[in-house]
Design goal:
Blueprint lengths: L19 H21 L3 H14 L4 H13 L3 H12 L6 H13 L3 H13 L5 H13 L5 H11 L4 H13 L3 H14 L4 H13 L3 H14 L4 H11 L5 H10 L4
Helix pairs in contact: 1-2, 2-3, 3-4, 3-5, 4-5, 5-6, 5-7, 6-7, 7-8, 7-9, 9-10, 10-11, 11-12, 12-13
Length: 260
């Protein structure tokens, strides 16, 4: 896996000073905070690198392993996501969100039967988080099951008025080409955090997939205003100005790489 350095579990190298431990813990926390912030800003490549940095300081950080799998899924690098999930599960076989992420990677790869097995295992572990229900909904949408709606509602109940959970649910709906439902969720996320460029960017992509070119142009312009360095918004505006709907091309590109 070219993205990752070799990370090994085990004791600290012989000779490492105890005085270094607080510094390493602080570095781990700093990189974890940076990774989570990048994730929430839609900067999945950056988040992936930061989660990897966390593991350099603490290879036993389950949250960082899970974060890497989730970022690979967002980047549509499903093969690597599955391999990385398997590596992590060797050490954290009962980590609920890791099991859930493996289920999503399998479902999006077309192995829906194995996906539901991992999703069931995730739900059977102690604890309940919004992501567990979002991942469950993702898997059920891959299986074309209406019960997915219940899963999203459970996630929203656990995190009422949380723009991040709403945004992630919208992205899942979009991935599964439920554009009208995704549009509503993107709009709800924006009502709660209108100053985040990635929400405008994703809203514009959803509007464009529905053929709503003028609203999409406005959304991309808002994203560009909030983040002048957003090349994706610039490219989308240029494409719209050239005329014609490109929703099919958009979907393929967005799944291959969700760079900001």
């Amino acid at each position: 896996m070219s993205r990752f350095v070799n990370l090994e579990f085990g004791d600290e190298p012989e000779g490492r000073s105890r005085a270094q431990q607080p510094t390493r813990a602080a570095d781990e926390s700093r990189h974890l905070d940076s990774a989570n912030a990048a994730f929430a800003n839609g900067e999945f490549e950056l988040a992936l690198r930061q989660y990897s940095k966390v593991l350099e300081f603490n290879p036993s950080c389950a949250a960082a392993w899970t974060g890497q799998v989730r970022m690979l899924i967002e980047l549509d690098e499903l093969r690597e996501a599955k391999v990385w999930a398997d590596k992590a599960l060797e050490h954290f076989p009962h980590e609920p969100e890791l099991l859930a992420a493996k289920a999503v990677a399998l479902a999006r790869s077309g192995d829906v039967q194995a996906a539901i097995t991992f999703s069931d295992a995730a739900m059977e572990e102690q604890g309940e988080t919004p992501y567990l229900w979002l991942a469950r909904g993702d898997v059920l949408l891959a299986r074309k099951e209406l019960r997915a709606d219940y899963c999203f509602e459970k996630a929203f109940l656990l995190a009422p008025d949380d723009w991040l959970v709403t945004w992630l649910a919208a992205r899942i709906r979009f991935f599964h080409e439920q554009f009208v439902l995704a549009l509503k969720l993107f709009q709800q996320a924006l009502e709660r955090n209108a100053g985040l460029f990635v929400l405008w960017l994703d809203l514009g992509r959803c509007q464009q997939a529905l053929g709503l070119d003028n609203p999409a142009r406005h959304s991309f312009a808002q994203a560009k205003q909030l983040n002048p360095d957003c090349t994706a918004a610039t490219a989308a505006i240029l494409q719209l100005n050239e005329g014609g709907s490109w929703s099919d091309k958009l979907l393929g590109w967005w799944r291959r790489r969700s760079k900001r």
